[in-house]
Write a structure and sequence with these properties.
Elements (H helix, E strand, L loop, with lengths): L1 E8 L5 E6 L4 E8 L10 E5 L2 E10 L6 E7 L8 E7 L6 E5 L6
Antiparallel strand pairs: 1-2, 1-8, 2-3, 3-4, 4-5, 5-6, 6-7, 7-8
Length: 104
Amino acid sequence: MATIGTFTKTANGDITGTVKTLTLNVKAKFVPTEGDSERGPDYRIVAGTTEFGAAWKKTARETGRDYLSVKLDDPSFPAPIYASLVEDEGGEAHNLIWSRRSGD
């Protein structure tokens, strides 16, 4: 597991921060989606005016904690990045956590 980003929630519901890996260093914003689609994402993820991901609200079975299941993708990426956005212990910030999926 690796923390690849840190974010904070704004008053209007956006979640802003930075995604950082060895090859990526980008300011990003999670913007709540309009409407109530059952299967659609709850957030669109943008860098500037470019959308490069989406996130879905989930609840961890073991702990009952809410988190966002995140998928980042762009034509410049060799493969999508899957991660989880979780609130830190103090509730002040959110951490974007990546771990390699089994079979990758």
